[in-house]
Amino acid sequence: MAPKRKRTSTLSAITDSGGHEPSPPLAVLPTGMALVSTPEEAGVLIRRSSTRRKKVVDYAEDKSQEDGALDGPLTELEEDELVDEEPAPKKKRRTRKKVVEPVIYDIPPVDTKETSFKGRLGYACLNTVLRAVKPDPVFCSRTLRIDTILKPDHGMDYCKELGRKNAEDLSRLIQWNEENSIRFLRVSSEMFPFASHQEYGYSLDYAEKELKAAGDLARKYGHRLTSHPGQFTQLGSPRDAVVTSAIRELEYHCQMFRLMGLDQDSIMIIHMGGVFGDKQATIERFKETYRTRLTDDIRARLVLENDEMCYNADDLLPVCEELNIPLVFDYHHNWIYPSVKPIPELIAQINAIWHRKGIKPKQHLSEPCPGAETVMEKRKHADRCKALPPDLPDDMDLMIEAKDKEQAVLHLYRIYDLHPVIHENLRPEKPSKPFPCACLDEDGLTTAPRRRKTKGKGKAAVDDGVADAVESGLVDEDVETPKTVQVMVSGGKSRPKSTSKARTSKKDQKKDGGPL
Asked: Residue 149: which pLDDT band, with cuts at 50, 70 and 90?
């Protein structure tokens, strides 16, 4: 193999005539041939040049600016100057309105019946259709607690405003009744909260405008309005404080009807109340209170009603005939605590008192819930009534005391074809709830279903409950607690059940502060 030849370059020192430094030597091929012919071409070959070219930037100053100020958007601002930029307004989110489709109720047909009754059917206090109206329901029982009255931002002004709204809605209620051919209504006793209270009571004169409007509307349409003061309105109580509170309650109802401008047909219905250990002594106290402590306005509107526990129609009829007090006959109560006299004979004597007093007779109708067996279960009213009583007089007013209120009246309208009904205002009947089963033990004694515990009820609440029971006559006042009450089931024996806490859990003992 031949050896590699070495590259050699022949440089010539050439000096120009001007005395300059010698030019770089010429590059010569190995064969002796020259690549370039001039020194400039040789310099280009020796110097390594880059293919990239530098970008020439011309920084020209703006002659219009002084003191060397830089050109830019921030130079126009002063140092002390602030710029408040308003944020861009947020786009409101558009919410689509829900399309509320009308509810179509499935109203089943009814089995029609015949009757000769030509009077008015009514319901008590609340209209279920108007109560469910949104967003502004219509009802006449807005109320509050005393704790709310004591709050600085509420007070008595708030309490009275609730009463004024209740009176306003009464006119709307009467108008709805007229449109649906219902011309008999029981006004709520809670129309004006705490109006008869000993400390927080007040006059109804401030709501005279609203009450007069409701009364004028009722007289225009020929509606009858009545009231039923609470169960604690007991004129035969042995305690004077209870009797005084009952009289204040009756005066409150009288003032309400008086401001409405209603006549004597707007009555106030009460019960005789508890037995208080001696039924006859209680009746005598009632007579004395009626004669000596009631005003003429109260006596003109006061009527009694037979109850299902203490006083049946046989007990009250002699008192009513003696004092000329009308008697409201309740068919349901008479079924639970029946009178000895037959119903047609009783009604004839009762109606004679009504006519003598110049007031149109009035009766109450209700039915027990399906499946009721014990006395306490039978007392509960069913949602609706299935039929009118057979001994019902033709021309009188009948109050339907049912849970479905106006729907119970419209149901009887359809059964007996008493008045045409508006189908849009009909509601289906809800299925009845079964009662808790009461069991029989091996001895045939009944075991009542266990009651649900109420939170926050301590010994004070138990004492208040015993006091209320004593006051109402369900428990004798002169017998020391614990009392015994009979738990009855149809077809079985009775067993006394103590009202005291025979067995108390450790949790309840700890809550009441007792030993663990």
From this structure: very high
Whether residue 393 has pLDDT greater than 80? yes
**For residues 215 and 259, is the Cβ–Cβ distance under 8 A?**
yes
Average pLDDT over residues 10-25: 46
Amino acid identity at 382:
A
Instruction: Tell me which residue of 418, 361, 348 sits closest to 388, measured CA to CA.
Output: 418
Looking at the fold, whether 234 and 299 belong to one and the same domain comes out as yes
Q: Is the pLDDT of residue 287 over 50?
A: yes
- Indicate the number of domains in the chain: 2
Taking CA atoms, 99 is separated from 96, 102, 425, 433, in Å, by 9, 9, 21, 34
487 and 417 in one domain?
no
Strands 495-498 and 484-487 turn out to be antiparallel
Residues 393, 259 share a domain: yes
Question: At which of 392, 425, 458 does a domain end?
Answer: 425
The CA angle 303-306-308, to the nearest 5 degrees, is 150
Residues 252 and 192 sit within 8 Å (Cβ to Cβ):
yes
Tell whether 98 is covered by a domain: no
From 425, 456, 489, the end of a domain falls on 425
Residue 329 is predicted with a pLDDT of 97
**Which of the four pLDDT bands, split at 50, 70 and 90, describes residue 102?**
confident
The domain of 501 spans 439-511
Which residue, 231, 246, 323, 333, is CA-closest to 283? Answer: 323
Q: Are residues 166 and 250 in the same domain?
A: yes
Burial annotation 101-140 (CB, 10 A radius, 16+ → b, else e): eeeeeeeeeeeeeebebebbbbbbbbbebbeeeeeeebbb
Amino acid (1-letter code) at residue 431: P
Q: For position 155, what pLDDT does the model report?
A: 93
Same domain, 200 and 325: yes
Q: CA dist 257 to 29, 89, 245, Å?
A: 138, 58, 19
Task: Establish if 5 belongs to a structural domain.
Answer: no
Contacts of 26 (CB under 8 A, 6+ apart): 9, 10, 11, 12, 34, 35, 36, 39, 42
CA–chain centroid gap for 160, Å, is 20
Q: Clarify whether residues 419 and 498 are in a common domain.
A: no
- CATH classification of the domain holding 227: 3.20.20.150
Please tell me the number of Cα atoms within 13 Å of 317 on its side-chain side. 16
